[in-house]
Amino acid sequence: MRTKIRELRKLHKLSQEELAEAVGTTRQTITSIEVGKYTASLPLAYKIAHYFGLTIEEVFDFSELEEE
Asked: What pTM was computed for the model?
């Protein structure tokens, strides 16, 4: 699943570690989500989107899931 997390982090000048700490997860989890190896749980997706003041749909691209 594609996300805008990396772009949002860069825009807000945040490291993966800083974002992870802010949303209560690990840097490795943020890395895995950014490279598409891991799909965030709904609660984590909400926390990330809420942190940036966005909706889940604005951060995560669900178009691949809709095609299945």
From this structure: 0.89
